[in-house]
TrEMBL record:
InterPro entries the record matches: Nitroreductase (IPR029479), Nitroreductase-like (IPR000415)
Superkingdom of this protein's organism: Bacteria
Organism of derivation: Vandammella animalimorsus
Gene3D superfamilies, alphabetized: NADH Oxidase
Domain Nitroreductase: 5-72
Record's protein name: Nitroreductase domain-containing protein
Entry-linked Pfam families: Nitroreductase
Family the entry assigns: Belongs to the nitroreductase family.
Signal peptide feature range: none
Length: 91
């Protein structure tokens, strides 16, 4: 956030955009690390940012943009993959 504030001084929309990009990249890194450690993860949106801010004790200046659930899957998902040859053809 410090980078967004200094690089985009007096540009609140640019600050917000950079913060969203940074949060998304951090979430991606967290999800990749969780997968590598054998955990399942899921990005969640569609939540009440004000309620999350209050629950987490965040100041008004902070805007929660996404949540990441991390845990062990109750059941193993079935992996269905089409053969590469069915999806890709070299010309």
């Amino acid at each position: 956030m410090a980078f967004a504030q200094s690089a985009f001084h007096e540009q609140p929309q640019a600050q917000r955009d950079e913060a969203m990009r940074s949060a998304s990249l951090a979430a991606m890194a967290l999800m990749l690390a969780a997968t590598e450690a054998g955990w399942a993860s899921c990005r969640m949106s569609g939540f009440d940012p004000a309620a999350v801010r209050q629950l987490a004790g965040l100041p008004e200046s902070h805007l929660p943009v996404l949540l990441v659930a991390v845990g062990k899957a109750a059941t193993q998902a079935q992996k269905v993959r089409a053969p590469v040859e069915q999806l890709w053809r070299r010309i």
